[in-house]
Batch of 2 targets.
Target 1
Amino acid sequence: MAVAAGFPTTWQTLLPAQPVTFPPDFLWGVASSAFQAEGGDVPNDWVAAARKGRVPPNPGNGFWEQAEEDLRLVAALGLRHYRLSVEWSRVEPERGRFDEAALDRYRAICDAARSVGITPWVNLFHFTHPCWLAERGGLLDPANHADFLRYVEHTGRALAGHATHFHVSNESMVYVLSSYLLGQNPPFVRDRELAFTMTRHVLALHAAAYGVLKGLVPSPTVATIEVYLDPRPADPESSHQCTSARRFDAWYHGTLLRALVTGCIELPGREPEEIPGLAGALDLYGFNYYSSLSFGERGVGSYTDRPQAPKDEMGRHVFPRGLEEGLLRVAAALPRVPLVVTENGCPTSDETFRIRYIAAHLAALARARGSGADVRGYFHWTAVDNYEWHRGFAGGGFGLIGFDSKTKARTPKRSALWLEAAIKRCGFAPQDVP
Ligand code: FCB
């Protein structure tokens, strides 16, 4: 893990001084998730938690009803790839009963994407569980793993031929972290040992689901998606902070990257475990990135020591170097596996901020490519402003496109037009950034 030195505090030090270029075949896309865009009264554990006031309610942004329009808007911006996900509780509202009408809608969305020249990338699990699964103990109970694989197989079969790119799960390690270690997301568990058990389970489920998806006809491209958290001590001189950041990194990034290479899961205090099919169970690595995670005096994520650096409306500092170094690290750990940045973006109501954020991260991505990382594309999070897990729809959104909460009418933002121009020109010059 790299140790922070000279944390940049102005946009001037964050933005590129040279033109930034991408090859003509670079993949430009947007990413979204089913529940965050569709919302609605679906039978999942987030809706149940919202009813209890533990998370904000989610009316959705209208994607379920008007995906076709969103896809046309996105295509018009020159974006040719769309990461969406399937809401498990829609397609399997009761254990073992699949709702073919819901699957038809997802098929129609994939077809609508392809009809406007967009490749759909379908993710099958993005944090939400059907209530029936949550009530049975979720994926923590190995007895329920067959349910997950049945859902993957049924949905994969339903969508094969309509989509050629799949992901088993979004950010498995964040799912473990937020739901089982920090207790922030359903089922709100805070238990280190259970978090290690879940780490084992999500990796084993990834391997098994990868095998299921690769067996589909036609066989799709199957990628992982993990967010790079870039843990760093807030004060590199503090040995306590360095140790905490290093320990976290060893579990969060280390376990995952090693397991994908060796097929063996190594967790603190446990016997290493070989998982059949895990070694090399990815055709492509989906790399999400937002900011660096600081280990400071006031705990994890506290950035009080860097008050001047630009930060988004969720208080996260803009730190593109974490993207560059993370891409190089993953590229070195997984040689021959192509990488795609599958999420990057920021919550803001300031369009100049968003454009600068995108420009700074695209420049970091280009630097990583220049240093040899095989990064094939950039997916912005997200297309249309959507539900953010603990913020709901409050404040500035992550979208390139805004919407009217009453009419659901969409309006591309200034950042969308900026990105469109960058895509057209295969890059941008320093003077193009406001
Ligand atoms: C990512 C999540 C995604 C969204 C963005 C802002 O870590 O995958 O669902 O909330 O953060």
Target 2
Amino acid sequence: MTPEHASELTAKVCSLAPVVPVLVVDDARIAADLARALITGGLPALEVTLRTPAALDVIREMATVEGGVVGAGTLLTEADVEAAKEAGATFGVAPGATDRLLDACEANDLPLLPGAATATEAMRLLERGYSTQKFFPAEANGGAPALKAIGAPIPQVRFCPTGGVSLGNARDYLSLPNTLCVGGSWVAPKDKVASGDWDAITALAAEAAALPR
Ligand code: 3PG
């Protein structure tokens, strides 16, 4: 897959809703319920981070839930890319970008949302053909004002800012012309996931899905 095609596909994923939930899930047995709760609330694009031993099984379970688009986050290596693809992920997300990771995603036909934190990183990715990128870690990098400033000279790159984004600051990003959506974990808080409070998670998802952009 070409980087240009990958960016077209990830831009489509990012346009499904204002927020992509970033999920760290320890138990695959609750994965389908969690996915259903978020999708019901209006957030169909889900990023499952490869940060728990259960993550690949979580992707497998979530991929069976109707109406969802399930991707793998925290892709760091070629092995991660292959495993994510095999588990049923239809897109990938990475905190940054290396040539080896980009090569692996292109070779495995996994559309990647690669991470950039600076103008140079965004330019390097754009040079390779990636016009859809993740701005990470968004708040620590200066937040919406920093992303707005990057957008002035490089308006052709569109971003999904992630890292420290919450209901309180999401609007600041979503009002920028170079922001397609935001990523965040606040819609699936650990305590509510642990207690299986799916109605509360659906309510958080609905609140996020109603954010203007
Ligand atoms: C992460 O690295 O887990 C994501 O960027 C999500 O960050 P958040 O927990 O600050 O939303």
